[in-house]
Amino acid sequence: MINKVSKSNFRISAFPARGWLKILLRIFGSLIDRILGFRKLERFYTESNLEGLSKENFVHRALDKLNVNYCLNNNLIDKIPHEGPFIIVSNHPFGGLEGIILADVISGVRKDLKFMANSGLSLIKEMDNFFLFTNPLKTSNYKNISSIRACREHLDNKGILVLFPAGKVAYYRKGKKRITDGDWNRIAAKLSRNTNTPVLPIFIQGYNSRLFYFMGRIYFRFRLLMLPRELVKMKNRMVNIYSGNIINPDQLMDSSRKNTDFLRMQAYLQDPEYIFRRQVEADITDLPGLISAVPYSLIKEELTTLPEKQHLLDFKHYSVYYGYYDQLENTVREITRLRELTFREMKEGSGKERDTDRFDFTYTQLFIMDNKNEEIIGAYRMGQIDRLLKNGDMKDIYLSKMFNFEGEFLEKIKQGVEMGRSFLIKREQKSIYGFFLLWRGIGEVMVRNPHYRYLYGTVSLSNIYDPRSVAIIHRVLVGEKNIVRPMTDIDIKIHPEVEEYIAARNPGIKELDNIIKSIEPEGKGIPVLVRQYHKLGARFVSIGSDIEFRRTPGMLLIVNTGESKAKTIQRYFGNNTDAYLNYRPESDRNSRL
After folding, report:
1. Domain range summary for the chain, segments of one domain joined by +
2. DSSP string of 61-74?
3. Crossing angle, helix 528-535 and helix 432-448, to 10 degrees?
4. What stretches in the chain show pLDDT beneath 50?
5. Exposed, middle or buried, 522 (CB in 10 Å: 0-12/13-18/19+)?
6. Which CATH superfamily is domain 284-587 in?
């Protein structure tokens, strides 16, 4: 179909200019056209019969004649709604080709597509109806105000808007020592908040020629002038496009500058060079079946023989107990079955018919009984370090397999309890009772044994988490280096843009949770135990890989419960909180489990 569209004018003299610059362009325009590739672009335009095509046909034929193909990753098309206001933000690696590609992609889904674009693109008359023009070289230009207003009106009319917030093509940034976008404009974040519009960040992989970056380092305006030359040189390219998760306006509750930095980071998070597949020991489909459930009658029989002091508390139809293997052989067997069942659902576990090892014979089992349904609903495995180190053998401590305990950290944990292997059965994972009762049981153990002043352990960063999430959690909560040396390192690189974001923002726990939600497909945030330990004032000190537990990453932490604030721990330590906090070793009356 041919539209009555003015022919595109691919000459430098056609660029909007005034005064002496306009005169120079007229005098030397022909020479400049030849040097910068405008002649080649015009020849391509003519030979490809692009004149007068509709905007959709124009971009499709241009890509076909350039023999440029693209690959859409991460279900990009499925994330674009068929109606309603929507914003797409992207990095700007090429300066022209990415706009043509996105126009071809998105116009196949939506006909109400608009780009906020450089006014230089007004030379392409066939695409004119795609654009809302602005001048990125002069951000204070009064004409830009009208273009921003036009963007807002387009979203108010429930249209879809594509923005390249850098405004200019990516270039070599001396301060960053790499090729990347310039600073992003705040318009995307502002429009999202002001119009209550979701945003989809995408990353387009690729670079321009070395000559382009070299000339840009000589004089920055050469970058714009060389774009026609670069577009013609894009023949036979394959361009990969990666989409992130949709960012809802309620995730952009900060200042427009911080929100802009957040959106930029989200785009660069999709860079495939920094996306890793985690190595897992065994494929989930190859795992053996679980052992049979232990009859409740056998568990009940063991519970009736426990000393009364090991019955820690009751709440509604739940009871919390602790015990040892030689007291609770059947109960421990059922706990290990339920552990493996629960961990497999999170792509963890031992890969055996039940999750057990030699430490189940020496560690303390804290567990919750649901008396109404006659089943165990959750448990924790606790290691009393003074009890375990009677023979002075560090191998009797489970986490010594993952971390090299020495020096000050070792001295601290000698006064503490190692926490691990926690679980709640699937039905109880969203219940307010299960999690509370586990921690209420831990608190009861501590107040009855006030010589324990530390809780330490690992929070499992489950294999259902994206490795990028693991790396960011580590970077934010632990820092650049592990204070305690892991036996097996987690070596996942973080994108420099993400590293710079974290260094500049120093995100707190809420912002970290928001970042992880934006990465994970199901929108899950940081593990609930991370939030819980953080509330208790935990210090996160390392991260390592448990090679015997399907290579699951574990983040090591320690809580100094002896120096906690009463209001922080009283929910779990109960009425004896003050006595616990005021305890001194000389007042120890041999209180023990």
Report:
1. 12-242, 284-587
2. HHHHHHT-EEEEET
3. 40
4. 1-5, 137, 280-283, 589-592
5. exposed
6. Gcn5-related N-acetyltransferase (GNAT) (3.40.630.30)
